[in-house]
Design goal:
By secondary structure, this protein is mostly beta strands. The protein is built from one helix and eight strands; from the N terminus they run H-E-E-E-E-E-E-E-E. The chain has a single domain, classed as Sandwich (Immunoglobulin-like). Strand 6 and strand 7 form a beta hairpin. It is globular, with a radius of gyration of 12 Å. The relative contact order is 0.23.
């Protein structure tokens, strides 16, 4: 995945959320953008990640690992339930905005 997405190795970095064990960050380089969300602790409900500079890059973000899709909702990413031990590598779904 790092070979296909330069943002993961060479891009700019922005912390989006660090709260109650949930850590989310955005990396980007040129047109490549990735949001990573990690939850090593217990399940969280009603999780919404502020998107920072990633806002507006796509209406829908897709997890590269599972194919799950999440919608941008007012400059936040609505994840709903974030399972214990979850990790997402979210890519903007092309053609939806960006």
């Amino acid at each position: 995945m790092r070979r296909r997405h330069a943002a993961l190795t060479q891009g700019e970095f922005e912390t989006l959320l660090a709260f109650n064990g949930v850590f989310a960050y955005h990396r980007w380089r040129d047109d490549d953008s990735v949001v990573v969300v990690l939850n090593p602790r217990e399940e969280r409900k009603n999780v919404r990640i502020p998107l920072g500079r990633a806002a507006g890059r796509a209406a829908i973000w897709e997890d590269a690992l599972s194919g799950a899709r999440f919608a941008e909702d007012g400059r936040r990413l609505a994840l709903g339930v974030l399972p214990s031990g979850a990790g997402y590598v979210l890519l903007p779904l092309k053609g939806v905005y960006g």
